[in-house]
Amino acid sequence: MAAAPILARRIARSGVLPLCCRPPSWDRAPRQPPGLPLAPCRAFSNNKIQVELDESSGVAMMKFKSPPVNSLSLDFLTEFSISLEKLENDRACRGVIITSTIPKIFSSGLDIMEMCGKNVEHYGEFWRAVQEMWLRLYGSNMVTVAAVNGSSPAGGCLIALSCDYRIMAENPKFSIGLNEAQLGIVAPFWFKDTFVNVVGHRIAERSLQLGSLHPAPEALKLGLVDELVPEEKLLEKASAVMARWLALPDHARQLTKSMMRKAVLDHLVAHREEDIKNFINFISKESIQKSLRMYMEMLKKKKS
Ligand SMILES: CCCCCCCC/C=C\C/C=C/C(=O)SCCNC(=O)CCNC(=O)[C@H](O)C(C)(C)COP(=O)(O)OP(=O)(O)OC[C@H]1O[C@@H](n2cnc3c(N)ncnc32)[C@H](O)[C@@H]1OP(=O)(O)O
């Protein structure tokens, strides 16, 4: 995936500072008092995502921190892809745990405002960033564990589904699923394929058609998440799971992962431009724009 020049152009236009132009990122870990041995931990943070790599375990903790709801805007997606790329290229990193700093929300999915009332160029750029994020995460060589500590609709669910293992806080108020149909839109084929690979065809078909958001206990029953734990135990559990996965030789696990995911990844890679065109045509339709506007209004009304 030769994404670097595209990312660089997008960053330049979006105004988000690329990590390579910031003060040396690995220097931003807290300084140790003199005399103490250096903690084997490196950290980098950008506007919307914070990452800490523990070199002794090879595990990075990635935390979404984009209030109010960690929606996946173009800037967020760009930062996410850059963070994943940095970790992927870091020989010290073998696994990443993904979670959120926002109470009750893992991620609210794609930022609907990025898909409303914008021009064709913007839709194309946005959709390429969504694709890139998924290609990096689903195709990652690292062990990826989602610690889902809040609601996770649509694009948020896709992030969790793209990981190797999903642990969710056992709060029945938190829900997860691909609810695109509820917005009057359609989950793209690679969202659907990722979902099918986790829960199987029948469950995916029903859930997608109904645009279901499954409360945590139901998500566990469907196999959409692998286990539920009390929220305060989530990160501890994620670290334990990660240690179990990292006990295996990387090359064997990586080749197996790649064998399991290759067909789905290759499908998008082979049809990337066509997929972008389809998205642009679809999202530009007046009827779809109207559905999205109504959905946003409904969200706002729910508040008042
Ligand atoms: C023929 C085939 C062609 C193929 C074409 C394919 C097209 C496919 C296109 C796209 C796929 C789409 C994927 C998506 O991810 S769409 C996004 C789906 N997300 C949702 O439905 C979540 C909506 N949000 C919620 O349900 C709730 O906000 C919540 C549960 C996440 C949090 O609830 P709560 O804590 O009560 O917060 P609020 O509802 O008050 O929200 C706060 C604030 O944030 C705004 N907001 C919420 N979600 C989003 C979002 N996804 N994007 C943008 N903005 C969001 C919300 O409106 C509030 O704003 P405010 O009133 O201004 O404060």
UniProtKB/TrEMBL annotation:
Main localization, broad class: mitochondrion
Enzyme class: isomerase
Record Gene3D superfamilies: 2-enoyl-CoA Hydratase, Chain A, domain 1 (3.90.226.10), 6.10.250.170
Domain of life: Eukaryota
Record-linked InterPro entries: ClpP/crotonase-like_dom_sf, Enoyl-CoA_hyd/isom_CS, Enoyl-CoA_hydra/iso
Pfam families with a match to the protein in the record: ECH_1
GO CC annotation terms, alphabetical: mitochondrial matrix
GO molecular-function terms, A-Z: delta(3)-delta(2)-enoyl-CoA isomerase activity
Alphabetic keyword roster: Acetylation, Fatty acid metabolism, Isomerase, Lipid metabolism, Mitochondrion, Transit peptide
Catalytic activity: a (3E)-enoyl-CoA = a 4-saturated (2E)-enoyl-CoA; (3Z)-dodecenoyl-CoA = (2E)-dodecenoyl-CoA; (3Z)-octenoyl-CoA = (2E)-octenoyl-CoA; (3Z)-hexenoyl-CoA = (2E)-hexenoyl-CoA
The keyword Isomerase belongs to this UniProt entry's keyword annotation: yes
EC number per UniProt: 5.3.3.8
Location(s), subcellular: Mitochondrion matrix
CDD domains (UniProt xref): crotonase-like
Presence of keyword Manganese: no
Protein's pathway: Lipid metabolism; fatty acid beta-oxidation
Job of this protein: Key enzyme of fatty acid beta-oxidation. Able to isomerize both 3-cis (3Z) and 3-trans (3E) double bonds into the 2-trans (2E) form in a range of enoyl-CoA species, with a preference for (3Z)-enoyl-CoAs over (3E)-enoyl-CoAs. The catalytic efficiency of this enzyme is not affected by the fatty acyl chain length.
UniProt subunit comment: Homotrimer.
Family named by the database record: Belongs to the enoyl-CoA hydratase/isomerase family.
Protein name in the entry: Enoyl-CoA delta isomerase 1, mitochondrial
Biological source species: Lepidothrix coronata
Gene: ECI1
